[in-house]
Amino acid sequence: MHDIVIRNGTIVDGSGKKPFVGDIAIDGNKITTVGEVNNTGQKEIDAKGKVVTPGWVDIHTHYDGQVCWDPYLTPSSWHGVTTVVMGNCGVGFAPVKPGSEDYLIQLMEGVEDIPGTALHDGIDFDWESFPEFLDAIDKKEFVVDVGAMIGHGPVRSYVMGYDRCQGKDDASEEEIKEMAKLTKEAIEAGALGFSSSRTYLHTDIHGKYVPGTEAGQAEMRAISQAIAASGEGTLELVSDWMDQDIELDW
């Protein structure tokens, strides 16, 4: 006898094969049979007329604040999503220096229109570094798997200060080294990658472009090299191609 048997569903298995009607057996936390299941299940689900698929992966979310109060991470979990990735578009809440929490909230509210009042009430900010942020998430239970990227905005504001991190100020050589170091540490601690924004559509609540929008080549190269040195991780960018020749050149 199996723990769970889902019967008569239209199965789309993710392999590229055509959908087919069949059964799925589940034992413990593993799918043990796909096709025809002869044995019964302790729990039987009739999926006739319904589509049965592997869990969806939502690779672009902004649950960075919501992870602090919503174990269901709605609405993703309502729609077959079993894995979410947050920390996109260069915004997030780690690393954060004491006193700069409001600044990161203003960035998130400006870019994603998430009410700052909700973020203020829901986030406890019991971390400073990105590894500490991951540890805080790990202590919570969710109905979906959660992955996170480290954002350019928090990194740049942590190193340069929120008074300098926006605008055309170039980071110093030492500041660039520190940003690369923080990125590498985050990925080694479990971050899925680094995200940045180079589009003029992304602003804070005051209409100022988010940190990293006009970051120089040296800064972007150093961060990219830090990712490469870690041996894993992705680089997520949103770009307006401000100068196509320059953007393609590097």
UniProtKB/TrEMBL annotation:
Pfam families: Amidohydro_3. GO terms for cellular component: cytosol. Residues 43-244 form the Amidohydrolase domain. InterPro entries: Amidohydro_3 (IPR013108), Metal-dep_hydrolase_composite (IPR011059), Metal_Hydrolase (IPR032466), Metallo-dep_Hydrolases_sf (IPR050378). GO terms for molecular function: hydrolase activity, acting on carbon-nitrogen (but not peptide) bonds, in cyclic amides. This is Amidohydrolase 3 domain-containing protein. It comes from marine metagenome.
